[in-house]
TrEMBL record:
It is a multi-pass membrane protein. The chain crosses the membrane at residues 6-23, 55-78. This is DUF421 domain-containing protein. Residues 79-211 form the YetF C-terminal domain. GO terms for cellular component: plasma membrane. Its main location: membrane. It comes from Candidatus Avichristensenella intestinipullorum. Pfam families: DUF421 (PF04239). The lineage of its organism: Bacteria, Bacillati, Bacillota, Clostridia, Candidatus Avichristensenella. Belongs to the UPF0702 family. It is found in: Cell membrane. InterPro entries: DUF421, UPF0702_alpha/beta_dom_sf. Gene3D superfamilies: bsu07140 like domains (3.30.240.20). Keywords: Cell membrane, Membrane, Transmembrane, Transmembrane helix.
Length: 241
């Protein structure tokens, strides 16, 4: 039994390592050849795991071979547009200038119910509001509303807009994120002072604290009735990330 558990652990770790080394896209949006590789890795890991008589190397070696093959195909795809189109396919425009492309739907065997479902998933209930819809090579639908149906932006109203970037997480489940403090040019003493102003004794009482690019600090305490505090903690002109 111990040998079975050990083999399962080795195969599991090998499969995770191979998938991880195939980059993050392998986990989120699979291209057709990546989907095939993912399925094959699962099969290669399952066979030696089920049959103790099968040498462990018969599962590990093919998985490493698939890793090399994936890297080679990815590199070749970067070098050749034609090869990339052959391996991964091309995006399909299903709605163009508000008109459903019936011929393209038939070519890829994509029915109207599938199209309407993806439009709803993209936040559009009325097909008349769609300007362009593209089925990407990963199978994900990119939906763009008509210009008349899009929300008004500051640019449309000729208004200046401040920079908006990724907020820095300063405290996560009671632990200070020192790396993010350094990115923001801050220190733990500054953080302690701000948390004290919010009524917290220290980072250990905080579930989450983040600082956005407007200089606004959000802090939520721990417990069944957590306190939530939001205040301007840094001048916008001092934001440096």
């Amino acid at each position: 039994m111990l040998m079975v558990l050990l083999r399962a652990a080795i195969l599991f770790l090998t499969a995770v390592l191979v998938i991880r080394m195939m980059d993050k896209r392998q986990v989120s949006q699979l291209q057709p050849f990546e989907l095939v590789i993912a399925i094959m890795i699962a099969e290669l890991a399952a066979t030696p795991m089920e049959d103790v008589g099968t040498p462990l190397l018969y599962g590990v070696a093919p998985m490493l071979t698939l890793l090399v093959l994936h890297s080679a195909l990815s590199l070749l795809s970067l070098k050749s547009q034609r090869l990339r189109a052959f391996i991964s396919g091309k995006p399909s425009i299903l709605v163009k200038q508000g008109v459903v492309q019936e011929k393209e739907l038939r070519r890829i065997c994509y029915d109207l119910n599938d199209l309407l479902e993806e439009l709803r998933a993209g936040g559009i209930l009325n097909p008349a509001e769609v300007g362009t819809a593209i089925l990407e090579t990963s199978g994900k639908m990119s939906v763009f509303p008509r210009a008349q149906s899009r929300p008004v932006t500051p640019e449309d109203m000729q208004l200046p807009a401040a920079y908006e970037g990724i907020p820095l997480t300063l405290v996560l489940d009671g632990e200070v994120q020192h790396h993010n403090l350094r990115i923001g040019g801050l220190d733990e003493a500054w953080l302690q002072a701000k948390l004290s102003e919010f009524g917290f004794s220290g980072p250990g009482d905080v579930l989450l604290a983040s600082l956005d690019t407007r200089g606004v600090l959000l802090a939520q305490g721990k417990g069944s009735q957590p306190r939530l505090r939001v205040a301007q903690a840094l001048a916008p002109e001092k934001v440096g990330w």
